[in-house]
Design goal:
The complex is a heterodimer.
Chain A lengths: L3 E4 L2 E5 L4 E7 L6 E7 L5 E8 L4 E4 L2 E6 L4 E6 L8 E8 L3 E3 L3 E6 L1
Parallel strand pairs in A: 2-11
Antiparallel strand pairs in A: 1-3, 3-8, 4-5, 4-9, 6-7, 7-8, 9-10, 9-11
Chain B lengths: L4 E3 L2 E4 L5 E6 L6 E8 L3 E9 L2 E4 L8 E7 L2 E6 L8 E8 L7 E2 L3 E5 L1
Parallel strand pairs in B: 2-11
Antiparallel strand pairs in B: 1-3, 3-8, 4-5, 4-9, 5-6, 7-8, 9-10, 9-11
The chains are: A mainly beta, B mainly beta.
């Protein structure tokens, strides 16, 4: 059963573009939502953690928002760079723990 | 802190052999998680511990899989006997609190031939 959906599955953009990655979930009873990036053959690196009581978090060029009522989170990447190329996963923490299937991002120089 | 440390990084074994994966969580983190990642199924939670006690092992696929956490600084995931379909990357993660931010280890890439 798919609890967390990430769309699109893959995204390719030219360098410098701003972009938005989407994460939707069916259970609004979440504690927190966390965004990760995963480089090929590597582990997961935490990007941003949004507590259930928060609406957004920012770190550098990254901004993540959480809307529990609509069951959505978005990760905004400003001024994308080739080094941003990776797979981005969201994970929601509620009574159980679920990861999305990820969005594979390619930033073209 | 060196982060979550997993060993080995890579393991290749023959079908039927016993495999043991190891994890050292971040000091002070009360929660430890074992995940498996495959192309087909993505990240799957296998089991998690709180204060060294297994809380939810419903994700453990079969009796061939077992996990222990004898103390706060060490956990093992054992597969006995291993099968080719167990081939995957196994991740360990720890967190300070329930629903708190995860920190992942670098994973163990297991290949069963």
């Amino acid at each position: 059963k798919q609890e967390v959906t990430q769309i699109p599955a893959a995204l390719s953009v030219p360098e410098g573009e701003n972009l938005v990655l989407n994460c939707s979930f069916t259970d609004s009873a979440i504690y927190n939502l966390q965004w990760f990036r995963q480089d090929p053959g590597k582990g997961l690196t935490s990007l941003l953690l949004i507590q259930s009581s928060q609406r957004e978090q920012t770190s550098g060029r990254l901004n993540a928002s959480l809307d529990k009522s609509s069951g959505r989170s978005t990760l905004y990447i400003a001024a994308s760079q080739p080094g941003d190329s990776a797979t981005y996963l969201c994970a929601r923490f509620g009574n159980q723990f679920y990861f999305g299937t990820g969005t594979s991002l390619t930033v073209i120089p | 802190d060196a982060g979550v440390i997993q060993s080995p990084r890579h393991e290749v074994t023959e079908m039927g052999q016993e495999v043991t994966l190891r994890c050292k969580p971040i000091s002070g983190h009360d929660y430890l998680f074992w995940y498996r990642q495959t192309m087909m199924r993505g990240l799957e939670l296998l089991i998690y511990f709180n204060n060294n006690v297994p809380i939810d092992d419903s994700g453990m696929p079969e009796d061939r899989f077992s996990a222990k956490m004898p103390n706060a600084s060490f956990s093992t995931l054992k597969i006995q006997p291993s099968e080719p379909r167990d081939s995957a990357v196994y991740f360990c993660a720890s967190s300070l609190a329930h629903g708190g931010g995860y920190t992942f280890g670098s994973g163990t890439r297991l290949t069963v031939v």
